[in-house]
Fold:
Amino acid sequence: MTQRTSGPNNDPVREYLRRSGAPYSVVTQGLRGLVENWERVVEQVIAGYNLGLDDYLNDMDARQLLANALELAPDEFREAFRPRVHDADMRIRLELVPAGRCLWGGIVAGEEGWNEERNWWYFERPRNPGPALRRELEET
Structure:
């Protein structure tokens, strides 16, 4: 299934991304782009995430955007992409361990209403982080 690129005003996902301040490239790629990005992040984590904590948090913020976008997407798109998201989530969860806290911090988690069950990506970390991420996780 292809996602139309014309008529962005008719696309609640693109409108949400625009209102959220997402970069133009993210807005234009819409739900498909969010899913493809998440699949890339999953591959990076499986390979041993070689970026730092800021990058990891940005990638988890993108997963949150994906969760929000899925809620807004028309049923046909949500159902078309749900299996891919589920598969990516299952693959990455095999590579994650509990962080023991929200990686953004407890204050942010409280302000945003995040919890370990619904927003698990903020409460888990790679089992085998690269050197930079390992060092930063140990320092925080």
